[in-house]
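Interim report, section 4.2 (structural modelling).
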Amino acid sequence: MLNLLYLLAAVAFIFGLKMLSSPRTAVPGNVLAATGMLVAVVATLLAGGVVDLPMVLAGIAAGALVGTLLAVLTPMTAMPEMVALLNGFGGAASALVAAAEMLRVHGVEEESFALVPVIAIAASLLIGAVTFSGSMVAFLRLREWLIGGRATVFAGQHLLNAALFLAALAAAVVFARHPQPGVAVYALVGIALLLGVLLVIPIGGADMPVVICLLNSYSGIAAATTGFVIDNIGLIISGSLVGASGIILTNIMCKAMNRSFTNVLFGGFGATVSGGAGGAVATARPVRSGDAEEAAMILEAARSVVIAPGYGMAVAQAQHAVKELADELEKRGVDVKYAIHPVAGRMPGHMNVLLAEANVPYEQLYEMDQINPSFSETDAVLVIGANDVVNPAAKTDPASPIYGMPVLDVEKARTVMVIKRSLNPGFAGIDNPLYYLPNTMMLFGDAKKMALALAQAVKNL
Amino acid sequence: MENLVMLLTVFVLAVFVGFEVISKVPPTMHTPLMSGSNAISGITILGAVIAAGAAVSTGMRWLGFAAVVLATINVVGGFGVTHRMLGMLRGKGHRPKG
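Predicted structure of the assembly:
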């Protein structure tokens, strides 16, 4: 009976995921998946195995309170951090369940460990702990509480990771031979936690969307392996669903950057440039900078304006100011579009969510492939907080670390305006030749203040 | 052994279903799809409930309790934030202001 209800929940998840991948059916899809979860949880609570109901309910109440607060209070700009954090919690929960199961079997004298659950416990501890610590590093980095977001690479890193992985396997083997709480388990968990940190720190900020997808996938796999530990079919089905869908998203992200999966994982992208691979020195070249009034005049006189947003817009919370500027321009008959690069921002679809929050009509958002052919007929492009995704070096400079990545062809427009705080290379640390082109005008300042100033200046014209 | 084969079968088939279900996703839906599937991976809450509810020792009780709390945050936070996000994506034409 219980498994039948789990099957029902799994069907709800499958349909829910399917519906979530289309804007029209997404809301009922999410509700359906949540309902499936509720059914599965209530069925488990009522199944009879739960002896200490008050404690379980207290845990659920506490978690529900924190979860609700997070869901309601987290600003849309902080979505990547939020997903990373929740991922980490999921991974940790899976590892904790495996640990608790180990204690249970150990505590029951007559029950001896079979090999399969032992392997499953080891796998679940390993994957769960990697997911947890990796997600926490991603979270801290996205919050910029840790190492600024720049990739951290050191010599012998891959070797160290490989050695740690082998050590984790060795600990797992020792544990499998003597399945009891002890040094081997602590070593396994400790190594796994360290491995999670080391796997994420070499991955640069621009690759964060890939990391988040991948960790999402891991948290699903962790749940599935925990399903093997406690013989629970609900966990296996749902966990593997999420694991697989996470891999698909990871793949979509990798394709968007024209990089292979292994290259993202082991590339140390964004840190290698310090060796000078990015090409010419940034300082000596002339840059044309302008102010809000000058820029407003160009924008107001344009027939078509394309706005290319990036992570900087999210950091500065500039989406509402950008929308205000777009409204002013539209009132004056300017055709405004938004060019959304698939990996703009720090998680897949980040820009779409932010612009939706600012009530930008869905019809004005254009994907890269749709909008690239039209840049040559565009009067003005306004780049806000984007860097790598508009870097022409990706097309022209084989020495550039992002060479080959599809980018927005903004430089083909008559005028390109770039709102940026300074000429410092971006999150990924790569110099951008776009800033030195003759048709580029730099607008130095905070994205939000500059967008507001532009809106005001257009209004005053 | 037979049980393991059955579980493995379910696992492998579910992986294929996962691959099939979301082959084409428009970029707008990437974030909600991710936070939604993230919430589903909180399914481990079932294991947490079982572990906490059937604890035979203090250590197991605390591990189980912590797992229940974390998994519930994952589930409730994940579905909740997805719902909120989708509300914004859907409310594109009209503007509620404020």
